[in-house]
Amino acid sequence: MPRSSTGLHALTRQQLTASGSPHSRVYVEAAPGSGKTTVSALRFGLHRFAAPTDARAVVAVSFTRSATEELRTRVARQWGSASLRWPHRIVTLDTLLCDLLFHLLNEGVLHWPGGHTEIDVLDSWRTALPTKPSRIKPVLRVDGGHVVIRTVNELQTASHPSAMHFKEAVSAGACTHDNVREVLQEALPAGPARRALISYFETSVRSLTVDEVFDANDLDRDIFSLAASASSSLTLVGDPWQALYQFRGARPAAMAAYIRENGFSTHYLDDSFRWGTDRQAWLTRRLRRRVPVTLPAGSARDADMVLALKWKALWECDPRVLPLAIKPGVGQVQEAICTLLLNEIAQNALGTQAVFLHDALVTLGLDKEALATTIRPCLQAAVADLKDGRQPALVWQRLTPSLADLIPGIATTQLARKPIRALERLQLRLANDQLRPGLTCHQSKGREWNTVAVKLSPADASALAHGLDPAREDHRALYVALTRARLNTYAMS
Ligand SMILES: Nc1ncnc2c1ncn2[C@@H]1O[C@H](COP(=O)(O)OP(=O)(O)OP(=O)(O)O)[C@@H](O)[C@H]1O
């Protein structure tokens, strides 16, 4: 079928039926590249314009910023920018959770320390407060409708702010997205919060579409069911084979059970539009049938993108691969500066930016304009020094005084520890003029390239030799990586 500029002529019967389903509870299960985003965009627009006099919002959510942006772009292209005029919106699930928390605070169902009703929600404390490795984690709890500060003892050490810094920041009206989740999780079992949120959905949201629904955890699922019980239309879209966020509490099996037990009208999208070769279509079919697969071997040079489960595997595999994130492990400021150096190299060599550039800028208290006008010349000089073979320790010594002068928030003492290993890795990459970008399987989700090389660990190779098991998170991550290429997928030799 020919494609039109709006994409409408290109729709398959399955896609049209799913998008236009009159049911109030719809579940769309789709294989990679078969049109999850296409159907979500179409259904959003249909609901948006179906009831012009209904003032309640049509809302779509996804789990990552990039997936949310992709859906927003497609809706704007197909339905015009008016389709996204407030209160209609496409936002991350985290943003929707913040709206729900603010509603509970404004309604007086919950009370924040210091009486705040608008909270400044951060991605992570690491960008705003000093953190250090500890098993003591400050958290938020709810006690009689009051948000209170507690500490918990974790089994594993991780970076946390001190209880004192945490308390100061929360009392000043700040928290992280994780804290928002903690509060909602504690508040929701109680009747008043549940009733307030059902009433919020009844009066403010007439349609909710959730993309990548198998990345949802128990709290998320509870929120969706509150929306459904408020008689909002609920559309869940996803692929159980591509659920990746178990480590963040996602429970794909519980989501599947919820869908099964709650009368969702189910639609399958089988035809994928990603595959440009029979080989790639064949590979995906075999993976999904759980049969053994052997990948052809290839090198980084053959690929548009190199994928692996962990960043570490990418840094260790081939110096022609430039992984798009770097974690020196010697301090937050060092990590932020190394990310800026990586970004400089990635922009020059590949025309792309480092994955965690935004976090690095927040840590250093910079914006993109300050980076481009003030900081960039120092970074360029450091990259040139590394390229010339100057010792990483000397490069760091030369770079840091100028950065300390230019960035008010950082002191020279914070820069004393040198991220030598990270600088050596960058230097090794600068010796190559044919770099290829590297991403983790998680970062590759929802994206596509012509040719993809995958760095298989021994466990990955064994999983492929026996057939993938969709109940296993590591196998699903591998499945996502192996279904990103339009034309060819190689195992990195
Ligand atoms: N009926 C169709 N005919 C032709 N091309 C289509 C059709 N439906 C979708 N496409 C195209 O196929 C590609 C994949 O579609 P889409 O991004 O909606 O799939 P997806 O299921 O969200 O993918 P992913 O597996 O990455 O999550 C897009 O470029 C889209 O424009």
TrEMBL record:
<keyword id="KW-0547">Nucleotide-binding</keyword>
<dbReference type="Pfam" id="PF13538">
    <property type="entry name" value="UvrD_C_2"/>
</dbReference>
<dbReference type="InterPro" id="IPR000212">
    <property type="entry name" value="DNA_helicase_UvrD/REP"/>
</dbReference>
<feature type="binding site">
    <location>
        <begin position="30"/>
        <end position="37"/>
    </location>
    <ligand>
        <name>ATP</name>
    </ligand>
</feature>
<protein>
    <submittedName>
        <fullName>UvrD-helicase domain-containing protein</fullName>
    </submittedName>
</protein>
<dbReference type="Pfam" id="PF00580">
    <property type="entry name" value="UvrD-helicase"/>
</dbReference>
<dbReference type="InterPro" id="IPR027785">
    <property type="entry name" value="UvrD-like_helicase_C"/>
</dbReference>
<keyword id="KW-0378">Hydrolase</keyword>
<dbReference type="InterPro" id="IPR027417">
    <property type="entry name" value="P-loop_NTPase"/>
</dbReference>
<dbReference type="InterPro" id="IPR014016">
    <property type="entry name" value="UvrD-like_ATP-bd"/>
</dbReference>
<keyword id="KW-0347">Helicase</keyword>
<feature type="domain" description="UvrD-like helicase ATP-binding">
    <location>
        <begin position="9"/>
        <end position="276"/>
    </location>
</feature>
<keyword id="KW-0067">ATP-binding</keyword>
